[in-house]
Every structure is written in structure tokens, then in C-alpha cells.
Design brief:
alpha/beta; Rossmann fold
Length: 303
Amino acid sequence: MSSRALLLVASALGHKMGYRDVDEVRRKVERQQRRPAAFGPPKRLDRHCRVTAHFRHGWPCYEVVPRDGAARVQVMYLHGGAYIEEIGDNHWNLIEQLATSGAARVTVPVHPLAPRGTASTVIPDLTALAGRLTADGGLPTVFMGDSAGGGLAVTLAQRLRDTGGTPPDELVLISPWLDAATGNPDIAEVQPHDPMLATEALRYCGSLWAGDLELAHPWVSPLNGSLADLPRTTVFAGTRDILIADARRFRDRATAEGVEVDLAEAEGQIHVYPLWPTTEGHQARRHLLASLPVPAGASLADR
């Protein structure tokens, strides 16, 4: 699919495929509560990957590893969907590519969605899971996520830092949602060009995830927390995505606090463009794979 065709589809269906209309978003939440969507990995993954699952926290957590060859990096992948929608095919496609082309062992938590799952009930379990992965020490560890999952990746890195846990080696954030209140005044400049997202609908989703916390709480809006001592971070964002305003703010604040940040801005691209089957999406995924750390003594050529 060309980026132009994707933009036309997103513009035509943005009220359904994205989060522009708050009434449509409320209907999404109601449908998910009434008839939960499937979330398991597609059967095609079995051709190239080994997939296992555990339920230690009362919800599924999948592990996807390459069928042939050893993993050289471990990735905790946190899916997007504004905290109200399940993991989908685009996420699983990237996870499969991480395992096969990136030689990654990918841990994929499928935590409860809002409003049943909230920041205060889910983040402690996710932090415990993340801490076990980083403490393992056998492989370099990356926390990766798109949209809401990108915000979660930052939150978990902050939680491990603040609780004395072992930090991840790297963060990879795809169109991250870093401030649930979407109060950045620079959003207004981008909003007319974004076919998928709008501030009112996002704030509604954020309030469901916040539960008994304030929208400004760092567990909900990690941009309000300290960014000092976070690991090296790669951020992907399109210029037709309102969340790019906070991606730039994250870069500026984190860099000022001594964090190495690579912000890859893609002109004319929409929300989570690296997940879409476009030329720009393929280029972003190559960049993403190249950014993954490798164990000492190894090289990208060994993957």
C-alpha cells in the first residue's frame, strides 16, 4: 500500500479506525466490554517462531522466539490501542519480524484493558514482569511499544529506576502517547492534518486508564515524571500525528537531562506509521531493527 492510499483510507475511516470521535470511542469501549476481541497470536507465527504463554498475573503473557537460531536480544513489546483495544495483526506482524529478522525473544503482555484494567491495577504487575526480564542479565533488553504502549514503556523504565530495579538497555517508542491530557499547545498546529487522532477522544480513553489517578499522574502521563537516567531511546513519529508534539517535547527534556534520544520524524506520515505496510513503514522497521542492541562480542551481521 502506498502512503497516499493509506492516508486516504485513514481520512475516510479515521472516526472508526482511529480515535477522533469521542462517541465512536465510547462505542468501541462498550463493544469490547460486551464482546471482547481476540488477542492471541495468528497461526502463521508458528511457521517461523515458537510461541508459549503464561498466566502468572491472571492475564496472558506470550513469548515469541525464532524457531531457528538463538535469540540475541530480548524485547518487551507493549501494544497500543489507547488502552481500550486489544493487540492486533499489525502488532503481531512487527513482533514476528522482531523474532525472525531481529533474532529477538519477544515478551508480549496482554494486560486487561480500560476501564477494567487501570494504571494503578496493571502497572505494578507490568513492573514486576519488566523487572524479571531486566534482572535476567542473559541478553540486552529493550522495552518497545506503540502509542499507549510507548507511554507504558517509558513508565516501566521510570518505575524500575525509582524502585532500584535493573533498567532496560534501550527504549524504542513508536508514536508514543506520553501525556494522556494532550495539553501541549503545539498539538493545535498538527490537529487539522491528523486523520486518526483528536484530543477529546484521547482524553476520554486516558481518563478510563487513569481510573482513580489524575490524568497528570506519571503512571498515566510519563512525560510528567523525571526523564533523567532513562536508557538510550529511539522514537518514531509522523508529522501528521498530533502525538509528535509530545515526542519532540520528550526529546528536548530527556536530552537536557542527559539521555541520548534519536527522534526519527517522517514527513507526511500518520500515527504509528512504522506498523503500516507502506514504503515508509518498511524503512522505519529497518531503522528499528538496526537500532536493537547486540550482546558483547556480537554484531548485527551475526543476526
